[in-house]
Known about the structure:
Distance between the termini: 73 Å
Helix content: 40-55%
Largest sheet: 6 strands, mixed
Number of domains: 2
Number of strands: 6
Oligomer: single chain
Shape: elongated
Radius of gyration: 24 Å
Amino acid sequence: MRDHLxxxxxxxxxxxxxxxxxxTLLILPRELRDSIYGYLWDExxxxxxxxxxxQAPDSFPDPHENINERRRPWFLDPRHLGQEVTEEIxxxxxxxxxxxxxxxxxxxxxxxxxxxxxxxxxxxxxAISSLTVCVNLDRADAHHISRxxxxxxxxxxxxxxxxxxxxxxxxxxxxxxxxxxxxxxVCRVQDQCPVRRNNIAFADSVSNTLQTVKDFVQxxxxxxxxxxxxxxxxxxxxxxLCRVVKGVIKLTLDDIDNDEATWLRRMTEIKESHEIVRSx
Length: 280
């Protein structure tokens, strides 16, 4: 009983301390409070939260899941600073991290509806400067599956129109992993190189999927009455025994329309030997 009373007194002292700190903070002008909140978002904290935000449907953490509780900074817990200050801090996060990524188009709806650490804040309530949709092309028929998926879910992005930043960037990341062991001269004879053959098949899959993306972007621009800056990231990830080698080609929609043959050829040139980052 004595220990329980001591713990209760300790909790009461902490509550009064937090209440006093919150009251002092709320006396300050909102602009000054926002400036103070900005110091909370160091790279490590943002990176830690990003692990919970990155892949929907677990994009916006569920406060009841232990894994997300460990990623919740103490200042995003209303029990410490109160609901009002905690929500203001969360709003400042959206101003510092307003680019979001989903691992599949089918998760668009999930990422729009999920709340941020249970604070009644959603992605669609805040200005968005960038959104990345990942398109996985690992399977042989992946381009067909991706086209069906994109057609079904991309129109949901129209609900974001009121909160898109003027310079909004929509990125489609086409990716695939290819497991191969690189030994000897396997990759020196291009005509017999499994990496090169796989690259060509991947390029065909991307090309087949792109028409769906282009059709959506044209419709999206007409509804928005404003151009969308579209960026395509086409990458292959080769896993050898000791490292992952990454090759990326960044494109715009105009690049594809003007010289599709060139960027398709460059995709087939991504090799195991070193990292390649190219822009047309």
